[in-house]
Write a structure and sequence with these properties.
Helix content: 40-55%
Bound molecules: glutamine, zinc ion
Shape: globular
Number of strands: 24
Structural class: alpha/beta
Oligomer: single chain
Length: 764
């Protein structure tokens, strides 16, 4: 019999209940006991959903109040001294590491948080010392949650982050030089003890996540797999059977590191179906294959026919008893349930499947393979019908879009002239001083703006009233910028709720949900729009506001757009056409917008691509180059429709370009603004080394904090930048948009920034 398994379930609950509870706890509105009771309620509810769906192997310890890696840090006694010495109780110490703690005389910043592989989830980095020791907590969470489920009558499969991944994903603490992987021998006894406790509690199998196996790994890390899993194998039945679990990529390049005598190996067959045969041939003689065929990263209904074919390809080689059907990864990256979506068009809703629905899908696939298709004929037929309906729907296919894509020519990717010609035409038109000052686009999104938007959405004010309000905001923004003496102005983006949603709402091919939240980090959730079909732009999206801004100022005005790659990455993409095709469609829509802005008298246009880097495939090499190739092409396609005298800007919220600088250069943007105030100015070396000819505005101050930088600080920063960049090349701007700031600090900071720029202008 083929069993079904879920690798992890979203934690937030139907109505983002966990978010509400943790935030209420942080705000002092509920007690710690209340919070823990709510967490318990959610865990139980989630186990029940999976059980009722008919899933055989249900995870526990996939839950976390903030982040699962952070929970391991605490359970393994790897809490840095600055937290353990605070005297905070376990829960508060945990949150202190996750989000910092500044109360009652305790003042500690958070541990570093970074993206979980190529997803939009963020984990807390294990932060390790040279003399690091590990010690299992007295009541390990994994054991407690296994017991909790058992009491509720549900036998679960506990999930642990494996020792190699835990260390590889960690780093040496500030001032420490330890290579985390060198701590393996010290860490393994903690796993042994934990696994033994789980066995005693009654766990027969444990899912041990080793997702780092899909990365390019140093030989030392590969060798660590051998050390760790040989050790576990030697423990025999003192510990549960291990399901060695990988996801988000293929493991073919690291096959020698896959343990031979492990009970089961899980691979992601949604992302890399082609690895199936190679992985099967490398399995130990009794090892079970866990086939990840239900997408843990997306919202589409599983194509049963295709999934069943994949599973049967495995059962034919291994027999039904050696195959498990599973989600490709944890379902953490999918929303809770489709049942909450009351406003979706039924035609489209029929194409979706969120976490709760995916649980049901898994059980059906397992039954189809075990008992034959006849046992679930109705479900298979209904699924085939949905799949067919989606594939042939007018909403999926727009012949006009495809026709336009087929006509893209080489010239469409190139500006009319080289940068040297462009910049001299731009300078004539814009007449900017040396060290021109600008901002990244948004100004404070005040309470009033949010209130008016909410009123408009609810129909409490008319479109005309709302428009008038926005115009007034734009006018105020412009006036403030003129008073500050900024050189290139922006309208301030008061009309935008979110930099992707705003565009998605105006593009054909997108749809929106009301409850499809996905955890991004801690209590923060995002609700990505969904690309359901071919994308096009029925009419201009930003021209009205930008044009209005131009009408109330004589200064150059910068139009503001979100780039094609960022629109794609911060949405749920389609799974039926390649992402490059979707990026190209978005690019064409944006190209029209750029040209329309130019026609409306906007001489500077910024196309933001902050998500370009996070889309980088996890491994270097061919796949990464292919991605960069289509991503760069999409950006160019969206920006090259303009005249030489129109200046194209782009923006990135980081300055680590070393790994893919050739792509940044290939964007051919006239001006780049990048984050730099929190990074080492040395990172600007890449621009020097490549003799980058175009203009750059490395951020001169951090916009994430209300702190106002002094004029002197900004001057020092500019001085540093001038060690790397030529004066004619340097723009002066903040790190990123100002929407999360208050007006008071915004004005003060920008005033200091403008004064600093003037100082250098006088000097050069
Ligand atoms: N133009 C956007 C803003 O200023 C850019 C935001 C971003 O880079 N994340 O808000
Ligand atoms: Zn930014």
């Amino acid at each position: 019999m083929v069993q079904s398994a879920i690798l992890g379930f979203p934690r937030m609950g139907v109505n983002r209940d966990l978010k509400k509870a943790t935030e209420a706890y942080w705000g002092g509105k509920i007690s710690q006991d209340d919070l823990l009771a709510e967490a318990k309620r959610l865990r139980l509810a989630h186990w029940k959903i999976q059980k009722d769906a008919g899933v055989d192997l249900i995870p526990s310890n996939d839950f976390a109040l903030y982040d699962q890696v952070l929970s391991h840090i605490q359970d393994f006694g790897a809490v840095p001294e600055r937290y353990s010495s605070t005297g905070l109780n376990t829960v508060d110490e945990y949150f202190a590491m996750g989000r910092g703690h500044q109360k009652d005389g305790v003042d500690v910043p958070a541990l570093e948080m970074v993206k979980w592989f190529d997803s939009n989830y963020h984990y807390v980095k294990p932060t390790l010392q040279n003399n690091q020791n590990f010690k299992l907590a007295s009541k390990p969470k994994a054991v407690a949650e296994f017991n909790e489920a058992k009491e509720a009558g549900i036998t679960t499969r506990p999930v642990l982050v494996g020792p190699v991944s835990f260390l590889h994903l960690g780093k040496a603490d500030r001032g420490q030089s330890v290579e985390p992987i060198d701590l393996l021998e010290k860490l393994l006894p903690v796993y042994e003890e934990l696994l033994a406790q789980l066995k005693q509690a009654g766990a027969t199998t444990v899912q041990i996540d080793e997702p780092v196996l899909v990365l390019d790994l140093p030989s030392k890390t590969k060798a660590a797999f051998k050390t760790a899993y040989e050790k576990f194998a030697s423990l025999g039945d003192k510990i549960p059977q291990l399901v060695f679990t990988t996801y988000f990529g293929d493991i073919v390049h690291n096959l020698e590191a896959v343990p031979k005598d492990v009970y089961a190996v899980h691979v992601d067959l949604v992302r890399n179906p082609e690895q199936l045969e190679t992985v099967i041939s490398a399995l130990g003689p009794k090892t079970i294959l866990s086939a990840g065929v239900v997408d843990g990263r997306n919202i589409w209904k599983t194509n049963f026919k295709r999934a069943i074919e994949k599973v049967e390809a495995a059962t034919q080689k291994l027999g039904a008893d050696r195959v498990i059907v599973a989600t490709s990864s944890s379902l953490l990256h999918t929303p809770h349930t489709l049942a909450s979506e009351k406003k979706l068009d039924p035609e489209i809703a029929d194409w979706f499947s969120f976490a709760s629905e995916k649980a049901v899908e898994l059980a059906i696939i397992a039954k189809a393979v075990t008992d034959g298709p006849a046992s679930v004929r109705e479900q298979l037929e209904a699924n085939a019908k949905s799949v067919e309906a989606r594939a042939t729907s007018k909403r999926t296919n727009d012949p006009a879009v495809k026709e336009r894509q087929s006509k893209i020519s080489k010239d469409d990717y190139n500006r009319k002239a080289e940068f040297a010609t462009r910049i001299s035409e731009q300078e004539k038109k814009l007449n900017l001083p040396l060290f021109p000052t600008t901002t990244i686009g948004s100004f404070p999104q005040t309470k009033e703006i949010r209130q008016q938007r909410a009123k408009f959405t609810k129909g409490e004010i008319t479109a005309a009233e709302y428009e008038k309000f926005i115009e007034k905001e734009i006018e105020d923004n412009v006036k403030i910028q003129e008073e500050l003496g900024l050189d290139v102005l922006v309208h301030g983006e008061p009309e935008r709720n979110d930099m992707v949603q705003f565009f998605g709402e105006q593009l054909k091919g997108y749809t929106f949900t009301t409850h499809a939240w996905v955890q991004s980090y801690g209590s923060r959730c995002v609700r990505p729009p969904i690309i359901v079909g071919d994308v096009s732009r029925p009419s201009p999206m930003t021209v009205k506001e930008s044009k209005y801004a131009v009408s109330v100022s004589k200064k150059p005005m910068k139009g503001m757009l979100t780039g094609p790659v960022t629109c794609l990455r911060w949405s749920f993409p389609r799974d039926d056409v390649h992402q490059s095709v979707q990026a190209e469609q978005l690019a064409l829509a944006l190209r029209d917008e750029v040209v329309d802005l130019e026609k409306a008298g906007i001489d500077v246009i910024q196309v933001d691509e902050p998500a370009l880097r996070e889309g980088l495939p996890l491994r270097s090499g061919k796949e990464r180059e292919a991605y960069l190739d289509w991503a760069v092409k999409a950006f160019r396609l969206s920006t090259t429709g303009v005249e030489n005298a129109t200046q194209i800007h782009s923006h990135f919220c980081y300055s680590e370009f070393q790994d893919f600088f050739h792509a940044i250069a290939a964007l051919d943007a006239d001006v780049l603004s990048i984050e730099n105030s929190k990074s080492d100015a040395k990172l600007l070396t890449v621009f020097v080394d490549s003799q980058y000819p175009r203009h750059i505005g490395p951020g001169v101050y951090d916009i994430h904090s209300p702190r106002v930088p002094s004029e002197q600080e900004i001057k020092d920063r500019i001085e540093e930048m001038l060690q790397y960049l030529r004066p004619e090349q340097l723009w002066i701007n903040p790190d990123c948009g100002l929407k999360t700031r208050q007006w008071k600090e915004t004005k003060e900071a920008l005033q200091n920034m403008v004064s600093a720029a003037k100082h250098f202008r006088a000097k050069h």
